[in-house]
Amino acid sequence: MADSTSKNQTVDAKKEANQMLNLMNIVIKEQEKKQDKKRDRKFLEKFKSKSKMNGKQSEQKKIEQNPESDVSLVDQIFRPLANAFKGDTPIVSIDCEMVEVDKFSDGLARVSIVNYNGHILYDQYVKPEGRITNYRTWVSGITPANMNGSKPFKQAITEVHRILKGKIIVGHSLKHDFSVLQMREGDRYYNEDNTPNFIEVTAGQSTFIVTKDKIRDIAKYRKYQNQNGQAISLKRLTEEFLNRKIQQGSHCSVIDARAAMALYRINEQEWENTVKQKSYCSVKEKVARDAGQLQKFFGGASQPTKKLKI
Fold this sequence. Notes:
Blueprint: H1 2-60, H2 73-78, E1 91-101, E2 105-114, E3 120-127, E4 132-134, H3 137-140, E5 151-152, H4 153-164, E6 168-171, H5 174-180, E7 183-185, E8 189-190, E9 196-197, E10 199-202, E11 205-210, E12 215-217, H6 234-242, H7 253-265, H8 268-297
Parallel strand pairs: 1-6, 3-5, 6-12, 7-11
Antiparallel strand pairs: 1-2, 1-4, 2-3, 8-9, 10-11
Helix pairs in contact: 1-6, 6-7
Function: Exoribonuclease involved in ribosome biosynthesis. Involved in the processing of ITS1, the internal transcribed spacer localized between the 18S and 5.8S rRNAs.
Main location: nucleus
Domain Exonuclease: 90-273
């Protein structure tokens, strides 16, 4: 009888210990959640203070092409001046709107490209490949009426690739836009005559290749990420850094492309310096790697050359 009582007490003690462990885990998780929320709040407070500073600085800045204008840099991108250059520029910004096709797949329904000054270079509604199963109007702004007279997908893709060829491409979370535009980040191919080839053909499908040095993704720029290195929405970044409200209802790809361009331009110099530094470091690494391979090929460390006696 005493043995069974002690066994029961042992079982009860184990149960209580497990319950305590479970409670401790719950408490720890709740504390972690609170800490995460505190970090997010602190980060947003920093955002607000930075955005106020950036707002004041941007109001004082004048676009280089229009030094006599009283309109801020950000305003000139959101509402491009009539006398600002309207043509093709080496740096462009892109944004796409997608609909659902063939149940749960993304299909291109609108694509917009703006130049360095915010002027529209390309803005077309596109008839996606596949059957549209959800227009996602509340987000995309696309309606069935927009598909009337829309451009065929293959024609739109060809035109977009032609505009983007050799350009520096600005955007937010560009991987989503690239996926519906038959584009991807990768190494450049070269033809036999050593000219760059931007198109990769796999299984009969052409993919437009964009090299890393040509991509300016707002979502991947460290200054525009949270403390954990995660992307922040374009809507939030625009509100905090540009003092502008976008995406109040459905999205507009032209406005989103302009917002991305403005976010890039207020940090353009710093961003480009970072790109140059990374490029320089990668070249150094490549040279060191190639030198190591040469030494290995020729049999270890290179020997000093001996002068021939005449």
